[in-house]
Design goal:
- It is a single chain.
- By secondary structure, the chain is an all-alpha fold.
- It has 14 helices and 2 strands.
- It has helices spanning 3-23, 32-42, 49-61, 69-86, 103-106, 109-129, 137-151, 156-165, 173-196, 204-231, 234-237, 243-246, 252-274, 284-295, and strands spanning 96-97, 100-101.
- Strand 1 (96-97) and strand 2 form a beta hairpin.
- The longest helix has 28 residues, at 204-231.
- It is globular.
């Protein structure tokens, strides 16, 4: 990781942590158990890759971080809701997330379901009303639409459904990519889209290039996750290592071999950089982030 990205990552993690804490309901107000679970799952954990993408895209476009706090929180709330539900016994049945017990283990299954539901609703409440968002009313509506599509049956939830239906099946490369374009990639693309919609006079051609960049890193992120699931360990990952392989899920290493999967990640990184060629040094954080995604250890 470059020093510039390391410093910016630290800045964004501290910034979004504070913003998330401010927007979460207090654990002291009713229903206390639900609010405790929301705070337990959201705060003090995770790489915050999606908020980082929102802030870094904003920096590329000259948007102040303060104008992106609401969008960054909304996308992180959706991400955490998806993790809570993915970990449930009916889904991936995992007991560890971000280095601590999953929500249904720490609380109970019913609370975990409700916690995910509440975080999803809170994300859209923020996009609709958060005063930090400076987008026009028309663009605010587009932000709500973009996040809803990225989260639903044509995005993350649809990808998870395909994933569950594909257990024990050897998918083709296009089928595997289609699954992950929805399951992982859709929300990563939304992280960038929410930032582009925060700039009312943005050239549509620039927005398209940034969306293509996000599509590439969304796929490379999943390729690297598949690699780490086989090469890393539980302590480093903060979640159960080898879970996908044990559950006989289709992965890039299973389809392409480990060397082929690593080559695929590198190719996606190069494609991401190509889409940033219209920018100068102002996009260096996005370039560094693409490299970090394929070189990370967890």
């Amino acid at each position: 990781m470059s020093q510039a990205l390391k410093e910016y990552l630290s800045f964004c993690q501290h910034r979004v942590e504070h913003a998330l804490e401010q927007r979460l309901p207090s654990a002291r107000i009713l229903p206390q158990k639900l609010h405790q679970a929301m705070r337990y799952c959201v705060l003090d954990g995770g790489k915050r890759t999606r908020p980082l993408l929102t802030y870094a895209t904003g920096q590329t476009l000259g948007i102040a971080p303060a104008a992106l706090d609401g969008a960054a929180c909304a996308v992180e709330f959706i991400h955490v809701y998806s993790l809570i539900h993915d970990d449930l016994p009916a889904m991936d049945d995992d007991a560890l997330r971000r280095g601590k017990p999953t929500c249904h283990i720490e609380f109970d299954e019913a609370t975990a379901i409700l916690t995910g539901d509440a975080l999803q609703a809170l994300a859209f409440e923020i996009l609709a009303h958060d005063p930090s968002i400076v987008a026009s009313d028309a663009n605010r509506l587009k932000m709500i639409t973009a996040l809803a599509k990225a989260s639903g049956s044509q995005g993350m939830v649809g990808g998870q459904a395909i994933d569950l239906d594909s257990v024990g099946t050897m998918l083709s490369l296009p089928e595997l990519e289609n699954m992950h374009i929805h399951k992982t990639g859709a929300l990563i693309r939304a992280s960038v889209t929410l930032a582009t919609l925060s700039k009312s006079d943005l050239d549509p051609a620039v927005a398209i290039k940034l969306d293509h960049y996000a599509k590439c890193i969304g796929l490379s992120f999943q390729v690297k996750d598949d690699i780490l699931d086989e090469e890393s360990d539980t302590a480093t990952l903060g979640k159960t290592q080898g879970k996908d392989k044990d559950n006989n899920k289709p992965t890039y290493p299973a389809l392409l071999g480990m060397a082929g999967a690593k080559q695929k990640a590198r190719e996606l990184h190069e494609m991401a950089l190509d889409n940033l060629s219209i920018f100068g040094d102002e996009a260096n954080l996005l370039r560094d982030l693409s490299l970090y995604i394929i070189e990370r250890s967890h």
